[in-house]
Amino acid sequence: MVESIRDAGVPLGKIDDIVRLKGLTNRNYRVDTSDNSFVIRLPGTGTDEYIDRRAEANNARLAADWGLAPPLVYSDISTGVSLSAFVRHGKTLSATDCQEVQTLERIAQLLHRLHSNNPIFASTLPSAQLFDTYLEIASRTRGLHEVCSLLRQRALPILRQQTGSTTLTPCHVDPNPANFLDDGDRLWLVDWEYSANTNPMWDLACLSLEANLSRSLRTHLLESYQPIDTETIQSDFENYVRWVGLINLAWSAAQIGQGNDNTDFLEDFHYRLNQWELEFS
Predict the structure, then answer these.
(1) Spatial distance between the Cα atoms of 156 and 229, rounded to a whole number of angstroms
(2) Labelling 116: which of 3, 109, 162, 201 has CA 20 to 30 A away?
(3) Cβ atoms of 66 and 25 closer than 8 Å
(4) Is 249:270 a contact under the CB 8 Å cutoff?
(5) In angstroms, rounded to a whole number, what is the distance separating the alpha carbons of residues 272 and 251?
(6) Which residues pair with 178 in a beta bridge?
(7) Under DSSP, is residue 223 helix (H, G, I), strand (E, B) or coil?
(8) What is the pLDDT of residues 94-107, one digit of tens each?
(9) What residues does 38 pair with on adjacent strands?
(10) Positive or negative CA dihedral for 142, 143, 149, 152?
(11) CA 55, CA 124: separation in Å to the nearest integer?
(12) Would you call 187 helix, strand, or coil by DSSP?
């Protein structure tokens, strides 16, 4: 792994230590060298079925150019292996951190900066197709057939209402708390695997769900993101909370189908389903 990166011309220097980092689908390692520290990402099994590595590398480099992400040092789009700069003193945020008003405001400002950038990303998010891909992966496991049928039923009224967004901006697509790092001076966004052009409300909806934001905090998020005329984005936001919640459920089912044992995805799926049913059924 390390030697192949060196062979590609990346001057890693003498390696002092390699430390395993957390990750739900990928294997991530901090590599400490005599000069710097980096993060090596080894892609999880099966992620090539729904991740566009060429687009990821392009988007991660753009995000770094915009000052939103650590520099991408190396990327092999054929294998999904990547090497990024390590954020020193970077604290990974938790859902509880994101529920703090000041932190939530900083996140809103960071996402607004991302969504305001040009040029746009290399690809556009085909959310309905992604939903189907997740369910197709999940359905390979016999015990998940009923789960897939249930999610398709829940998605039908949402898909009928979708008319296609005219607002496309660069989006992270997976801004869960664990993908935000706070180094004490600024926030960083990492893990640009799913990044694409889509409606900016996707990112706000995803954050709201993954950080378990209350209704009052969701309102504060929108007000911090767009202080003027928040009502104009409220309807889009609520629709995306419903849709992103379903896609996250399908993603969780796909992890079960692929045998991902990095966490208890069966428990994760039932928790997400209960939360979605409580809010929208």
Answers:
(1) 31
(2) 162
(3) no
(4) no
(5) 11
(6) none
(7) helix
(8) 999 999 999 999 99
(9) 31, 85
(10) negative
(11) 10
(12) strand
